[in-house]
Design goal:
The chain has one domain: Phosphoenolpyruvate-binding domains (TIM Barrel, Alpha-Beta Barrel), CATH 3.20.20.60. It is 36% helix and 14% strand. It contains eleven helices and ten strands. The strands form two sheets. The protein has an eight-stranded parallel beta barrel, surrounded by five helices. Strands 1-2 form a two-stranded antiparallel ribbon. Strand 8, helix 9 and strand 9 form a beta-alpha-beta unit.
Length: 290
């Protein structure tokens, strides 16, 4: 896939404005970490639609089509019911709506755990049908063989360690991980295993800060934190959480705006204008030309 982006926007409001910009590549992201540190932290947010991607793209290095769309878009209780077809549909939309960021698509629960060959079949579909540059999967030591298998066959993999939402039932909830010394050591071992297996980067989620620091300093690939530490090589949040779209968010989220309140007020004004027949006005109706 070409890294330059041009698109005719005449027929759809959802298409981004063409710009003479090259899309970031996996090697470019890897090169941001030099001698164990990333001087310019990597910015990543989730995106699920073309328009959302268009708005976020100029400000991000990476856009993650997260399986969190199950909860954010579809109102599901967890990510477990998200399907490969859902991820592909939204992944393709985000690729169409962006021209700068590296787009990464989550592999949903059940699409990769059974075997490396199963993972390759799912990942190759994602890559071919979305145009994304990489996939992301959860798991540490147990997934190292699969990560190596995919990487050796031309599929860049972002790993995900620490709190892994697809394992919510096994973990017993979404609480922070690494409170015990045993779990601390396991997360660090998981991180080193996926880096050694060929992951080009990793997300570390919901862990004690000292673990995030140890992992960031202990692996040669970029470490993207969420509920981890500012010491990480970059940060990611669910965009809707960051925008204040929901009443309840994890402790580690900073709300940079209250978009839910803005939408509510705007809908209230629209409803009032409709009920008072003050909308539409002369400016919004069609009349025969004189």
């Amino acid at each position: 896939m070409s890294t330059t982006f041009t698109l005719d926007t005449a027929t759809s409001r959802a298409n981004p404005t063409p710009a003479p910009m090259k899309r970031l590549t996996v090697p470019a992201v890897q090169r941001r970490k030099v001698d164990g540190r990333t001087a310019d932290p990597l910015v990543m947010l989730t995106a699920y639609t073309a328009r959302q991607a268009q708005l976020l793209d100029p400000h991000c290095d990476m856009l993650l089509v997260g399986d969190s769309l199950g909860q954010v878009i579809y109102g599901l209780p967890s990510t477990l019911a998200v399907t490969l077809d859902m991820m592909i549909a939204h992944g393709a939309a985000v690729v169409r709506g962006s021209y700068h960021s590296l787009v990464i698509v989550d592999m949903p629960f059940g699409s990769y755990e059974a075997s490396p060959s199963k993972a390759f079949a799912s990942a190759s579909r994602i890559m071919a049908e979305t145009g994304a540059a990489a996939v992301k999967l959860e798991g540490g030591v147990a997934m190292a063989e699969t990560i190596a298998f995919l990487s050796q066959r031309g599929i860049p993999v972002m790993a995900h360690v620490g709190l892994t939402p697809q394992a919510v039932n096994a973990l017993g909830g979404y609480g922070a991980r690494g409170k015990s010394r045993e779990e601390h050591e396991k997360i660090v071992s998981d991180a080193k295993a996926v880096a050694d297996a060929g992951a080009f980067a990793m997300v570390i989620e919901g862990v004690m800060e000292e673990i995030a620091v140890a992992v960031t300093d202990g692996v040669p690939v970029p470490v993207i934190g969420i509920g981890a530490s500012a010491h990480c090589d970059g940060q990611v949040l669910v965009t809707e959480d960051m925008l204040g779209m929901f009443e309840r968010v994890p402790r580690f989220v900073k709300r940079f705006e209250n978009i839910a309140e803005i939408i509510g007020r705007t809908a209230e004004r629209y409803a009032a204008d409709v009920r008072s027949r003050s909308f539409p006005t002369e400016e919004q109706v069609y009349r025969p030309k004189k």
